[in-house]
Each structure stands twice: as structure tokens, then as C-alpha cells.
């Protein structure tokens, strides 16, 4: 109701552009939170679903990772569509797709079990969910790139992306104490909020598409073969691999390693830590910039601290023998990951300000690929090593160090195209 009133107020022309931007920042923050709330439901329930369907770790890894098949492979197309038709027009349609799929998840699980082919049906369902959610972040990136000044783009986009971690906390709590369908009603409410006025009135006045020259989109090869871009993509891949591995497997890790631990604790506490740092990291990056440091130094500092911090925590985890130390280490690891929102996460706005949607689509695909490669490989490692989690954490930490070194040497915050 609050957001709906904000949008009604936002239609009045007496409000400033900054007020409009703040209203839409809150709306997109909430939308991102709801989207990630939907995404985290399956990993939290994975241990119980695997027990019901008698899956091994490889089967669970496939089911957890196949979401990212659709998500990663649709990123480039999603960014291209958002740049052509406007993210504000693409976002409501794509949101409707994943909301409907989430709403009917319980029925799909029952149907899959009844059909006798649960893996195939759930595989298709997870891939389609990934396709539906793939349009969200590139559409937001395109909207922000077109409607905000360069000084505000990185900070605002980083704060909006922090909504993803709020969604993880929100759903982790609701999943454990509430009924499944309560969340979906909130999803539909958010979609209803977004549909009436896709573009704020002030933005419509300032950005007249009929008078705006068409900017020729760069080819994929021109972007990808830039060394500076590949450095950012490598850091995105390394950080994404660590994040998605923890995102997908931590509930199972705690469930198996510490069976007496409360699920609401280990599903919520690590995500609370990343919420705090992801909200603060764009502001910290601004503080560093205000000290006279260049954008390149700022991005390298934030991303390097993030990746090396995550790696250090993952190396420590195998030496923890009780629940509380393990929980604290993983919480610190997730907190370090939150610094990413002041680093590589907002890099496309730095090096491709006029092509953010398309470039972010390619860029985000690099991180999302780890969702199906890294998560599946983790499951395979667990099967091959009789559930030895140490191998998973050490291999993931080494990749973070490699990503930090590459980005520290070649990463940039300057315009490339």
C-alpha cells in the first residue's frame, strides 16, 4: 500500500527528478527482494525434497543448478530486449511469468511425483523459472542507465541489488514459519504496483524517445575481446561461483553436518550479514571516491576485499567443528560477498554507460554460468568424496583468489565503449 501511494504521488509533476528516482529505487528494491525470495525457496526445501524423491547429491546438484541454465543462457537476449523496448516495459511481463510458476510450485511437485518422471518435469520447470527471472536485472540496469546521471547510477544500482539479499532473509523466515502461498500474494501485489505507470512522469518529460537518437549497439565480440572487460567477467565468475555454491548448498551442509541446529538460524543469519554489507558497500565506494581515489582504484579495492575475504573464510570452514563457529565464518563470508555491490557488480555502468542492458546481460551471464557449472560440480564432488565438504570449499576459495588477482591487475572503472 505504501508503494502504491508513492507511485500515485510520483505522478504529480511538482515532484523533483530526485524524488522520482527515490520512489523507483524503493519499488525496484522491493521487486528484487521478492524475486530472490522466490529463488531461494527451492534450495531451502532441497534437502526434504531430495529425501522424498530419493535423490543423491548429483541429482540434487542438477535440480539446484538447472535454474541457471535458463537464467544464464537468456541474459544476453534479456539485455538486448531491455535496451530496445525499455526495461520498464519488459519487467512487468517477465515478472508475471516467474510469479505464476512460483505460485503453482506445490502443484507441480505433486504432478511430477505422480507422473513417474519427476526429474524431467522439475528440470523443465526450473529452467523456465530461470528464463522468467533472467530479464529482471538487465531490465533494471537498462532503466537506470537511461534515466539517471552517471554520478547516481552505480550507487543506486548497488543499493537496489541489495534487495536480493533482503529477499533471501525474508523468504528464509517466511518459508520456515508461514504457508507457501503467502509470499506469492505479495509478488502479485508488487506486480500490480509496477503495471499502472511504467515510466514516471518526470522521466517521460526528460526522456522523449521520439527525439532521442538511436545508439548503435556494440557487437558481442567487440565487448568480450576487451581485456579490461574480461578481467571484470573473471571476477564476476569467481565471486558468482562462491555465492551460488553457498546459496544452493549451505542449507544442505548445515542440515547434514549439524542436524540439531535450527533451520531458521542458519538460513537467516548469513543472509542478514550480506544484507548489511551490500547496503553499505555502494556508500563505502562513494566515500573512497570522495577521498580522491579514481573509479578504477575504488572498484579494485571493493572487489578485491570481497573476493579475498570470501576465500579466507572458505579456507577456515573445514577447521570448524561446531555449529556456532561454522555459522560465524559463513556469515563473515557472506558479509564479504556483499562488498561486491561496490565493485564489479556495478561495473557495467562504468565501462558501458550507453549500452548497459546488453553489456550487463553478457556480464551477468558470466556470473550465472557458475550457477549450473559450480553448483553441479559441487554435488558431483560430494558424491565422489563421500560428502567431504572441505574439497568444495577449498576449490571455491582458490577460484576467488584467482579472480581477485586478475581483477586487481586489469580491472577498470573507466569507459570502454
TrEMBL record:
One of its GO terms (molecular function) is transmembrane transporter activity. Pfam families: MFS_1 (PF07690). Its main location: membrane. InterPro entries: MFS (IPR011701), MFS_dom (IPR020846), MFS_Na/Anion_cotransporter (IPR050382), MFS_trans_sf (IPR036259). It is found in: Membrane. GO terms for biological process: ATP transport. SUPFAM superfamilies: MFS general substrate transporter. Keywords: Membrane, Transmembrane, Transmembrane helix. Residues 24-415 form the Major facilitator superfamily (MFS) profile domain. GO terms for cellular component: membrane. This is MFS domain-containing protein. It comes from Angiostrongylus cantonensis (Rat lungworm).
